[in-house]
Design brief:
Distance between the termini: 82 Å
Radius of gyration: 37 Å
Number of strands: 33
Number of helices: 9
Structural class: alpha+beta
Largest sheet: 7 strands, mixed
Length: about 600
């Protein structure tokens, strides 16, 4: 009997010890190498329920997080269902100093128990190129590596002319079950970028004898803005990968029955990946551009028309110029047209009917000019000339419209009148000569005595007369002062953008509210444009230089509360995940309200 009591006590303590060991297992992970100024994720994961206390850090700075992820796995052992839970805390850090950075163990508190994670060493290199050189198993050698997940940036062309377009597809290849949790797009210095629709479904591909599941999760249309070798930097992606956890056997106990996959245990592990960088060779346009060339590159046609060829003075006539085809239509400017000097010409109204796709930008761009003749007569509009560069044939092309002629008649409401001469009326039966008064500028001499007024009662010299001159002069002086002040303020483009930042953000948020229940992708696009556009205008940062690191540095100079940073990055992460990761949705109303709240806070905090 005593022997059985000792055996039961021994089994009980072994069971408790095994549970404590499982509950206390926590692990920290992060990339082994990053570049100075690059952000990266630091994750703490394990089976615990409590808080994570970060250690003191040097050389890196916390810029976001924590975001939490909880996964639960149930298995059946000896007829009993056992559940295991994995909690993952993800923090975003910014590398500030070059060298080896040591991240001491973090402390996880669960009830009264404290557990330490493993220590990490991260190598901070000078540039992202150093990281790429240091990494092994590149995409080109994937057949010889052991990588089961990688991403690749695939351009539709690597050699093109300035102003020509290319499509950049960012593709993920995987042999693991995963979800994309975060993607940081590279910078596109020297390119104008337009988002395109990504693939909705994955497909199988065989690379060097290995089968991968692949999917294009981001696609961009890029237009080269300058010549030379332009580099598209590598993109960074964060994934939650479902990995099998090895089962430990206690006391050397080994039964092949438990090797059945039914008893396998899995957990979600956060892991980061980096794509390849790409060099694009952009050739300058050939010299000797013809007249009418304004930077158009592609294949186009020209159509010009007027809506009438006869009209009267002060009536309007419309000249419509339409450029259609395939190329950089987004970047075209109105064509130069030689109008007669006697026509009043208003600024053109631009109408866009464009489609962005894998073949580039196609459609039509129309300019409508309103012309008003102020005098009668015949008018001629010279032929409109439009030139462009065709990259396929590698030569300039020119298309010329016909000239346009139209006649203008006198208006029925003209001020012309006919007056009979009094002198001629005194000549018997010789008839009076008619004197023509054109628009009232020359009138016949008055022969009757003028109407006289007593001295002192004349309007000239009175207070009303003086006021009628003084008040307009004062008003004109005020207008001149206000105009000079407006010119001075508009001269500072950063100040102009700062003043209009909130108005533009409100306009984009209004568009997002209209798409709240109709277009999911359009809703998240408008939210992202509202936030990034507001930060760009408010902080005076060009769109080509806009990045999270740049915004973080600018906001830090404004002494903003770190909580605002965390809320801002969290909102951007939600929108980007919902936009680019298939199958992930967020609460749109909550995202919309959070965007309004953050923009209001930033408007109040940033001068």
């Amino acid at each position: 009997m005593l022997k059985y009591l000792f055996l039961a006590a021994f089994c009980y303590f072994c069971f408790v010890a095994d549970i404590d060991a499982q509950e206390g297992q926590v692990r920290a992970s992060a990339p082994t190498s990053v570049a100075v100024g690059q952000s990266f994720n630091y994750t703490v994961s394990g089976d615990f329920s409590g808080d994570v206390e970060l250690p003191p850090l040097k050389g890196i700075k916390l810029v976001g997080g924590p975001s939490t992820f909880v996964s639960q796995q149930s298995t059946m052992v000896n007829g009993r269902i056992e559940s295991t839970k994995t909690v993952t805390y993800t923090y975003t850090f910014l590398a500030q100093e070059e060298g080896d950075i040591i991240i001491p163990p973090a402390i996880v508190t669960s009830g009264r128990k404290q557990t330490k994670t493993n220590e990490l060493i991260i190598k901070v290199l000078k540039s992202s190129q150093d990281i790429q050189d240091a990494q092994s198993g590149s995409v080109a050698n994937v057949g010889e590596s052991t990588e089961t997940v990688f991403i690749r940036q695939i351009p539709s062309k690597t050699n093109l002319y300035q102003g020509e377009q290319l499509v950049l597809s960012t593709k993920i290849y995987t042999q693991e079950a995963l979800n994309i949790s975060n993607f940081k797009a590279p910078g596109f210095d020297g390119f104008w970028r337009q988002d395109l629709e990504a693939d909705n479904n994955a497909q199988q591909e065989t690379i060097n004898g290995k089968t991968f599941l692949s999917q294009v999760f981001k696609r961009d249309l890029l237009t080269a803005q300058k010549s030379g070798i332009l580099t598209i930097e590598a993109g960074n992606i964060e994934c939650m990968i479902r990995k099998k956890v090895s089962r430990s056997r206690q006391g050397g106990y080994n039964d092949p029955f438990f090797d059945d996959p039914f008893f396998d245990r899995y957990e979600n592990v956060a892991q980061g990946f980096k794509s390849n960088a790409i060099n694009i060779s952009v050739k300058p346009l050939p010299s000797g551009a013809p007249d009418g060339f304004n930077g158009a590159v592609g294949s186009f046609s020209l159509k010009v028309s007027i809506d009438k060829d006869k009209l009267k003075v002060n009536d309007a006539i419309t000249l419509k110029v339409q450029v259609s085809g395939n190329g950089n239509l987004d970047l075209l400017k109105p064509l130069k047209i030689d109008f007669p000097p006697d026509l009043e010409v208003f600024d053109p109204k631009t109408l866009q009917n464009l489609k962005h796709g894998s073949e580039g930008t196609s459609g039509s761009l129309s300019y409508e000019y309103i012309l008003i003749p102020r005098h009668a007569g015949s008018f001629r509009i010279s032929p409109v000339v439009f030139s462009w560069f065709d990259p396929k044939q590698e030569k300039y092309k020119t298309e010329k419209s016909s000239e346009f002629n139209f006649s203008v008649e006198k208006s029925e409401s003209s001020d012309e009148t006919y007056i009979s001469s009094p002198a001629a009326q005194g000549i018997s039966n010789q008839g009076g000569k008619e004197v023509l008064s054109l628009a009232g500028d020359i009138r016949y001499i008055r022969l009757s005595p003028p109407e006289l007024k007593p001295i002192g009662k004349s309007f000239f010299g009175s207070l009303l007369f003086i006021a009628s001159y003084t008040i307009p002069l004062l008003f004109l002086l005020i207008l001149i002062i206000l105009r000079k002040e407006r010119i001075r303020r508009n001269a500072d483009m950063n100040m102009v953008r700062n003043r209009k930042a909130r108005k533009l953000a409100e306009k984009r948020l209004k568009n997002a509210s209209l798409l709240l229940k109709t277009d999911e992708n359009g809703f998240y696009d408008e939210i992202l444009k509202a936030i990034w556009g507001y930060l760009s205008d408010k902080l005076g940062v060009n769109a080509s230089e806009l990045s999270r690191e740049k915004i973080a540095l600018e906001l830090e100079r404004k002494n903003l509360d770190p909580i605002i940073f965390q809320s801002l990055w969290a909102l951007l992460d939600k929108c980007e995940m919902a936009r680019y990761a298939s199958g992930i949705e967020g609460d749109k109303n909550e995202i919309y309200e959070e965007a309004i709240r953050l923009i209001s806070i930033l408007q109040e905090k940033i001068s």
